[in-house]
């Protein structure tokens, strides 16, 4: 019998002063049995950082990348089904990223492993035509601290100012300074 997903709930209180986005998104996370707390929390961070200022064409949602290889970790589909924003977490290969750039208006990657620099150096040259792509690196120590905030039911305050992100749960706070490896936004 297969192990089932573990359900987590996250309520975010987002104050992104850099983009002037203020929202209270809530999400239910079906955590795949092989997914770590660290990866799950990077998905939550990516949700907050990619939350659209204008939600009239839908919002960013968690997808089923761990179950379906044709889906990203998160995506923003408008009401006609067009993919506005494709978000991957980890270290996807160049073919996947080029395909995503062809399918969506915007593609973001949130990498967090200590091997991110090696991965990026190996594929960066293959992505010169990917003008829709933005790649962020979360320093490993910071992503590991973020993982410690994981709980089955979470209320997280996410504040963004001058490129720095603070994520707190009322008792603890983690400072995250994502590094942009490539991209315009």
From TrEMBL:
Protein name stated in the entry: YaeQ family protein
Taxonomic lineage of the native organism: Bacteria, Pseudomonadati, Pseudomonadota, Betaproteobacteria, Burkholderiales
SMART domains: YaeQ
UniProt-listed PANTHER family: SUCROSE PHOSPHORYLASE
